[in-house]
From TrEMBL:
It catalyses: chloride(in) = chloride(out). CDD domains: LGIC_TM_GABAAR_pi. This is Gamma-aminobutyric acid receptor subunit pi. It is found in: Apical cell membrane; Synaptic cell membrane. Its main location: membrane. The lineage of its organism: Eukaryota, Metazoa, Chordata, Craniata, Vertebrata. GO terms for molecular function: GABA-A receptor activity; GABA-gated chloride ion channel activity. It comes from Elachura formosa. Pfam families: Neur_chan_LBD, Neur_chan_memb.
Amino acid sequence: MLCRYFSFFSLCLFLPIQRSSLGHGSRLHGRSTTSLTGFENLTMGYNKYLRPYFGGEPVQIAMSMDIASISSISESDMDYTATISLRQRWTDPRLVFHGNKSFTLDARLVDLLWVPDTYIVESKRSFLHDVTVGNRLVRLFSNGTVLYALRITTTVACYMDLSKYPMDTQTCQLQLESWGYDENDVTFTWLRGNDSVHGMEKLRLSQYRVQRYYTLVSKSQQETGSYPRLILQFELRRNVLYFILETYVPSTLLVMLSWVSFWITLDSVPARTCIGVTTVLSMTTLMIGSQNSLSKTNCFIKAIDVYLGICFSFVFGALVEYAVAHYSSSQKCAAEVPEEGPANELTEEMEEVKMTNILNNSITSYKQKISFTSIEISSDNVNCSDLTMKSHEKIKCVLRNKMHRIISYFTIQNPGNVDHYSKLLFPLFFMVVNVFYWAFYLYF
């Protein structure tokens, strides 16, 4: 019992000593903190609404950034989404303190400091990462230099020229500009020129590769003044191999498949028709699929559309070639049918020939009786220089003769030669068109 009372009494004596020592320690800590001139200014006399050197020379903001990723590049919306770590440095003489150390402060202290009003030009959507806390960094150096870093994901507009798609190279920009302070208040510079940007060479994109990038310093002239602007410009080269395997090779094979019909006889109507219709429908499906992938950019005549149009023309031409050859063959067969008919048909034909000869002889005798020696009448061609004919009859006669000559000029005497020449001309012409196509879109 006595031991318990003694222990309680000792504890009561010890607690005031501990409290006094803790209070003394906190006062010491407060003294060491308030001994820093910069820290005193944060709580006494520091106005975050006034920029450093207010009323004097402009504040120089040096920037650098890391490109963490470019997650998507949209041709239909003409923009790209990037995650960047933006770092800004400036000097505030009000935050100078003694010593050679730097202090990393709580990110919530940013609300007590003056920071630049930097924004991303042509940004559609942006947000600051806040997991698990706001991804911001504030570091204070003894000479008053402030390092302010942010991690941002932004969607920025990038105007693209898709006329050479998918063999195109797109140039996009990431522009940083001051919103309210003009060049009389702040100036923007890159911290180390092109070396101020990191991460571009490590990016791995699905359809593109970064060909080159560089930094620029510019100014934006607005109605309210001239504002400093920093530009990161980078060129993206599209990987064409994917499109070659997905579109170019299948369309070329379909064109070659349409040429198979040239080696099939004209009598095989189902086989040749099936090949022609199938290749035409397959090419139509490829063209629709290519347009659906870029449904909002149909105003552009793209390189892939030109190639698909060429292939569709060759496939359709092969189908039309068979129609012409088959029609010519049927016309020739129809002309040869009377010679292979029965005997009564031959007899009728011979009688018709005799009647024609009689009529011709009568006309000849009639011509001999009249004095106009320039008139010549035949069953195939009528001489339109007959003086007894009226003017409109002469015109009709001349037009009829011209039409007969044109039709005879385009009449195919041997339909078998159509396939024979098509076997050579279609592949040759297709190769020539391909040479011009690839040379134009790759080198011009």
